[in-house]
Amino acid sequence: MRLHNLGFPRIGTHRQLKFALEAYWQGDSDEKALLSTARQLREDNWRLQQEAGIELLPAGDFAHYDHVLATSLMLGIVPSRFVQSGQSRLDLEFQVARGQSAGGCCGQASDMTKWFNTNYHYLVPEFEPQLAIKVDCSPLLAQIEEARALGHEVKPVLLGPLTYLYLGTYTGNKLELLPQLLAGYQQIFDALNRDRVNWLQIDEPILGLELDEGWKKAFRSAYSQLRQGQLKLLLTSYFASVDHHLDLIASLPLHGVHLDCVAEPTDIQLAIDILPRHWVVSLGVIDGRNIWKTDLEALYQKLEPIYAQLNGRTWLAPSCSLLHSPVDLELESDLDTTIRPWLAFARQKCQELALLKQALLSGDTRAIEDYSAPVRDRLQSSQAVNPTVRDRLQNLQSFTRSEPFDVRKSRQQSLGLPLLPTTSIGSFPQTGDIRHIRAQYKRGEISRDQYTRLMQQEIESCIRKQESIGLDVLVHGEPERNDMVEYFADYLEGVATSRFGWVQSYGSRCVKPPIIYGDIQRKEPMTAHWLSFAQSLTDKPVKGMLTGPVTILCWSFVRDDLSRDQVASQIALAVGDEVQDLIAASIHIIQIDEPAIREGLPLKRSQWGAYLDWAVTAFRLSCASAPSEVQIHSHMCYSEFKDILDAIIALDADVLTVETSRSNMTLLDDFRDNAYPNDIGPGVYDIHSPNVPDQEGIKRLLTKALQVIPAERLWINPDCGLKTRTWPETEAALKNMVASARTLRAELVAQQEEAM
């Protein structure tokens, strides 16, 4: 039996990668310093895994920004607009990711979207008819040599050719590019052979999807063409069962396969019966995406007969890369002492594998029995059940608003908004001063009254800046919020937050998912006092900002003893209570963000319907009590909506804002084809890039939007919240946005007058 890992968190125990990246981008450090930090992180990661008991370590799972982008760079598949003479590889990487490098050159960054059904974002490969492949796998080879020099046995990790091709964009049939792509992969295989690599982990997570015959045929063709040499291929898939593709997998020239045994029910016996007898079978039995301690005793009972049957061909691993887990529970000294024994982070998950292996090899289960005791304690804990919450859900009468959109839109004319109203998505720059004030309050260095006054000063400053810019609908800027989910978690019973439980979302952006361990209800109002103060400062409408139930669910570590739809409904009731408080505070525009609604989709399309039914129900429940005069907005970003547009329409938000600037408004083609009936605000400002859009560029995007959306239903806004930007960038961009809106508004009014 061998223990291996598919990948480890890149960011470091204290987010060292984040701070090194941002220092480099800001010009406060150089390339040498960034690369030194990255090398130290890899060394630390290998050491942590080996000390925990992992025998075959991953190499190549580390990336400065994103592993899909790293694959594009390895293959040389980079759009020509990014290539500059004398450009370093590192600056090219950040040019593609951010639209700007340390050298300051600007351009439209590559599109970014969610990695399957996770909150991790990847940079979408852009394919042209003739792929200008120029392979450079020296960074991967360098990581292998680093590990070897430290005495580690490593297994390189490579994103497979079919998944890489599937995830990219191309105007034609992507499969026609496969022969060119395989030529590049062959060069990588040849280089790994020359470097005497033994095992290669080749990731093909699209095998969890329900692939059509064309893609299944492409798998057979691709893997039969690739000359493996001495390489042994471990085909790896995750996030879903591959039971439906076992015959396909068994037909490929491989040496082993990894099965995610956690994400969905997996028939391990069926896999053993179908797969070739000489293959390694890697069982992903430790949940790589959640933080609950594994019941190793129950797992042992399941695995013991399988281990005996496989007769030395068993490998054990987490279900997927531990990229999606926090690094080390040992850092969490402040967590509730009841909850902490229930948890396991990335380092502890590796240790779980070692304990499980020891028990399987020796037959002595005493250690895993002791280890698993807190698992049973959690499932029996009184903290998990709140009868009041369950009774309230049981007795619900209404899940929808009382009047249809056209009636609501008429009643909302009282808001007095102009044609093409302008607004932002919610958050404004989180300055160092704001973060310092929050830290002081958390450490008890300032009183609650002092904290409130300081936050009110920030809110007033934000309101005044928006008035000066000329926005039509204002926001309070969210200075009090550390994160759009974690902030709300602090006000919810049944939810805990950690101190160091960070995971990477993209690049230097890290999030700290809350831990949902029990039934959920509000402890107290969450936002109304801040919004009431903001509205008192201005005659313009101030928009209330809430995170929706599906997003809070998807961006948390969720209890596994209750169905996700039940948890979502509990959150929806808590959000709905806050909606009522905002209305009572004279807030008549309320945004309930649901950027995660698409990422919650199961990988298999046949399972989408059930998920979308309860996800839509949860959102509608959160705003069901809002009267027609109150305008409900929702926001979604970095998602492909075409396949779920019926569900998005069913949300019945009065205004939907979406990310479209990086895709140059191509996302709106989906709305053209499906006639989105309510108001919509396509983003015109890419907030993930430091580039400031000019007025002509914004107007060009708006003109394209008007070809799809009638002017009376079009809103103008950035792609997303602005917390990661600086104030100079933000003010310049929003001034250009408002100026473009006013110019276009005047032109439309003039046209209407001429028509009369």
From TrEMBL:
The gene is metE. The active site is at 688 (proton donor). It is an enzyme of class 2 (transferase). NCBIfam families: met_syn_B12ind, PRK05222.1. It comes from Bowmanella dokdonensis. One of its GO terms (molecular function) is 5-methyltetrahydropteroyltriglutamate-homocysteine S-methyltransferase activity. L-homocysteine binds at residues 425-427, 478, 593. Residues 420-742 form the Cobalamin-independent methionine synthase MetE C-terminal/archaeal domain. GO terms for biological process: methionine biosynthetic process; methylation. It catalyses: 5-methyltetrahydropteroyltri-L-glutamate + L-homocysteine = tetrahydropteroyltri-L-glutamate + L-methionine. Belongs to the vitamin-B12 independent methionine synthase family. SUPFAM superfamilies: UROD/MetE-like. Binds 2 Zn(2+) ions per subunit. Binds 1 zinc ion per subunit. This is 5-methyltetrahydropteroyltriglutamate--homocysteine methyltransferase. Residues 4-309 form the Cobalamin-independent methionine synthase MetE N-terminal domain. The lineage of its organism: Bacteria, Pseudomonadati, Pseudomonadota, Gammaproteobacteria, Alteromonadales. 5-methyltetrahydropteroyltri-L-glutamate binds at residues 18, 114, 119, 509-510, 555, 599. Zn(2+) 1 binds at residues 635, 637, 659, 720. Zn(2+) binds at residues 635, 637, 659, 720. Its cofactor is Zn(2+). Coiled coil: none annotated. Keywords: Amino-acid biosynthesis, Metal-binding, Methionine biosynthesis, Methyltransferase, Repeat, Transferase, Zinc.
